[in-house]
Amino acid sequence: MTLELASSQETVAPRAESPLAVRGMTVSYGQKPAVFSVDMTVEPGKMTAIIGPNGAGKSTLLKAALGILTPLAGTATVYGKPVEQQRHRIAYVPQRASVDWDFPTRVVDVVLMGLYPQLGLLGRIRPVHRARAADCLARVGMEDFATRQIGQLSGGQQQRVFLARALAQDADLYLLDEPFAGVDAATEKAIIAVLKSLRDAGKTVVAVHHDLSTVPEYFDNVFLINTHRVAEGRVEEVFQAHHLQDAYGGRLAGAQMDALQLS
Amino acid sequence: MSGSEFVPLSLVPMLIGIFVAVACALPGNFLVLRRQALIGDAISHVVLPGIVVAFLLTGMVTTWPMLLGAAGASIIAVLAIEGVRRLGKIESGAAMGVIFTAMFAGGVLLLEQSDTSNVHLDVEHALYGNLESLIWLDATGWASLLDPEALATIPVELPRMAVTLLFVALFTALFWRPLKISTFDEGFARTIGLKTGPLGLGLVIVAAIAAVAAFDAVGSIIVIAMFICPPAAARMMTNRLEHQIAWSVLFATLAAVVGYVLAGYGPLWIGMRDSVSAAGMIATVSGVILGFAAVFGPHRHRGAAAPAA
């Protein structure tokens, strides 16, 4: 608690503006912490990649910040207020593998789930809602699949449906967990185009990312994590060999490092 | 069969069978999709010791003490399952298996040791209930349905099950969207502010209410079957949850009606003299429906048809 208080006092100003500010976040699944005392301050209107080795706590950090997991300690604020009060401004895209795609529902029904905060328990789905769902599907190039059962889609198509659901939420902050995992090249291009259009419209995008080679091309900012925060900032400043070796603990071979166009 | 025979003897048990089947199948749809189908099995077993203890305390087979005993046993079981799961660090299916078999066995032992010879409380009753005995003696025909005097003597299990079904249906309708969203994608559900923990607990409690209310009339066999068989069969008929619910209600009703008729008249048709347990036959029919759905259901093969990107 003391740690949390101390850090929140010294960073009041950036927290208030930040779309997502995390302080002292600590999460444990057992004896060993998965995320330990992590601070993160996301810059508004930018695309930020959360990168780090497998098991570094990238997804865990996002889930704890959103309240999907209960942290041992730490706080998260969204545009300066507690997450609970800002849910309408957040759109979260979970890992595709985290859900059962055999679930009996259609593509359009998944996108309509993004409109639940508007519809409520019993609100009727009106043509305006259907039009919105269709529009979001069109933005990810899935308009022809609206009435397909979700289990009949390829991995890339499923990921696009998830993105369409997030678009339907019309949020200010988009948080994506490994949006490019196991998707085809066409889907990756389509997704990054949508994310960049969101950023260009003033939205903030944060994505857990694992492909180091595309970081400079896709993202503005980088957050490096390996249980602890390693580094945070602009790609050109932070995406450097020594930070990466810190985060990956020497697991990156020299050849891999050379292949990355490090600044 | 004429109304004067059907109404007093078969109408009430058949309706109770339908109400029980549908009341269990509705939450069963979500339990099956959440891979929690075993919960229904667990609840329907653990109510036995609760009912026996209630009987031992009151000395009577009366509704409210038994329902309270059953509810108490369900709560103890849910806590014990959670305790075993956490302390033993084992998966919940194994914890459920340990707790519900142990509690059911304890109930059987209690029942054997206590003097229940003069009441209709025994292991067979716990398993199969006494659906056939719920007859409406004062009814003389269809007209009795409009006769307040005759209606007053209708077996109490019928209105009790009707109210239970109404409650289960209302819960399903009201929380339809949260249930659907959180069953499909719990993480997303939490980020849009749905309270997935209380919602999941509510679903289990509603299932427990259906199981406990059904237990006295029809026993645990039918409850277990109806939580799983109609929803599982319905899943193979459609790829939409809305339609799956409708199919499960249809299958549950079909199993109740066909099972009841087969139990009462089937053995006579093949030259045997006695009828067989209606609850057992209803459960069997629901299993047969599941078998047919598995062989002929249009959506029994899934995943294989996924096209390449």
From TrEMBL, chain A:
Gene3D superfamilies: P-loop containing nucleotide triphosphate hydrolases. It comes from the Bacteria. Residues 20-252 form the ABC transporter domain. GO terms for biological process: zinc ion transport. Keywords: ATP-binding, Ion transport, Nucleotide-binding, Transport, Zinc, Zinc transport. It holds the Pfam family ABC_tran. GO terms for molecular function: ATP binding; ATP hydrolysis activity. SUPFAM superfamilies: P-loop containing nucleoside triphosphate hydrolases. InterPro entries: AAA+_ATPase, ABC_transporter-like_ATP-bd, ABC_transporter-like_CS, Metal_Ion_Import_ABC, P-loop_NTPase. PROSITE patterns: ABC_TRANSPORTER_1 (PS00211), ABC_TRANSPORTER_2 (PS50893). Belongs to the ABC transporter superfamily. This is Manganese/zinc/iron transport system ATP-binding protein. The lineage of its organism: Bacteria, Pseudomonadati, Pseudomonadota, Alphaproteobacteria, Rhodobacterales.
From TrEMBL, chain B:
GO terms for cellular component: ATP-binding cassette (ABC) transporter complex. The chain crosses the membrane at residues 6-26, 38-57, 93-111, 158-176, 245-270, 276-296. Keywords: Cell membrane, Membrane, Transmembrane, Transmembrane helix, Transport. This is Manganese/zinc/iron transport system permease protein. Belongs to the ABC-3 integral membrane protein family. PANTHER family: ABC-TRANSPORTER METAL-BINDING PROTEIN, METAL TRANSPORT SYSTEM MEMBRANE PROTEIN CT_070-RELATED. InterPro entries: ABC_BtuC-like, ABC_TroCD. SUPFAM superfamilies: ABC transporter involved in vitamin B12 uptake, BtuC. It comes from the Bacteria. It is a multi-pass membrane protein. It holds the Pfam family ABC-3. It is found in: Cell membrane. The keyword Transport applies. The lineage of its organism: Bacteria, Pseudomonadati, Pseudomonadota, Alphaproteobacteria, Rhodobacterales. Coiled coil: none annotated. Signal peptide: none annotated. Its main location: membrane. One of its GO terms (biological process) is response to zinc ion. The keyword Transmembrane applies.
